[in-house]
Amino acid sequence: MEKYVCTVCGYVYDPEEGDIDGGIPPGTAFADIPEDWVCPVCGSEKDKFELDE
């Protein structure tokens, strides 16, 4: 699965790990995360993330 990076703080969302504290279970693709989810580090909105190439 593809990883996405927060362009504000550099946090990397890894689908294999999910975001347990944010209610996102492991194995959740970035596209399947609710639109109201925010970066667990800096609180930026989902649209501030870009594909980590």
What secondary-structure arrangement, pairings included, does this model have?
Blueprint: E1 4-6, E2 12-13, E3 49-51
Antiparallel strand pairs: 1-2, 1-3
How would you describe this structure to a colleague?
With 53 residues, the protein is an all-beta fold. Helix content is 0%, strand content 15%. It contains no helices and three strands. The protein has strands spanning 4-6, 12-13, 49-51. The chain has a three-stranded antiparallel beta sheet with strand order 2-1-3, with no helix packed on it. A hairpin with a 5-residue loop joins β1 (4-6) and β2. The radius of gyration is 10 Å and the shape is globular. It starts with a strand and ends with a strand.
What level of helicity do the residues show? under 10%
The number of helical elements comes to 0
Low-confidence stretches: none
Number of strands: 3
Widest β-sheet, arrangement of strands: 2-1-3
Shape descriptor reads globular
User: How would you sum up the major sheet?
Assistant: 3 strands, antiparallel
Task: Compute the average pLDDT.
Answer: 97
Q: N- to C-terminal separation?
A: 12 Å
Strand content: 15-25%
Give the helix/strand class: mainly beta
Q: What are the secondary-structure elements, in order, as H or E?
A: EEE
Computed Rg: 10 Å
